[in-house]
Amino acid sequence: xxxSELVVLGQDDTGECCTPLVREPLGxxxxxxxxxxxxxxxxxxxxxxxxxxxxxxxxEACVCDLTGPFEVSQPTISHHLKVLxxxxxxxxxxxxxxxxxxxxxxxxxxxxxxxxxPGASR
Length: 122
Prior knowledge:
Blueprint: H1 28-41, H2 44-55, E1 60-62, H3 74-86, E2 90-95, E3 98-103, H4 105-114
Antiparallel strand pairs: 1-3, 2-3
């Protein structure tokens, strides 16, 4: 799967994706995984980093492009990127001396699917 493809959860036959909270309660494992993602996004610097990566030309950004917009040190940016990577929100690859980051569409689709409001009005 290329990085530009978006996987739409809830349209496969495996039934393994998360369902919106309004349909059924989360299991223990899913709650732990999703809490890690939401915790990673709860920090303003990490949320801005994710947005910066996602909106970067070509869908990926070099770490050298991510340090300028913030008033924190490069090691702090690296820590925040590590948290996003460990939460499964971004992927990364070392190319020479630089590391490039991209948003993982499946992770965003999973969060989006979870918070999806019910279609029918009450």
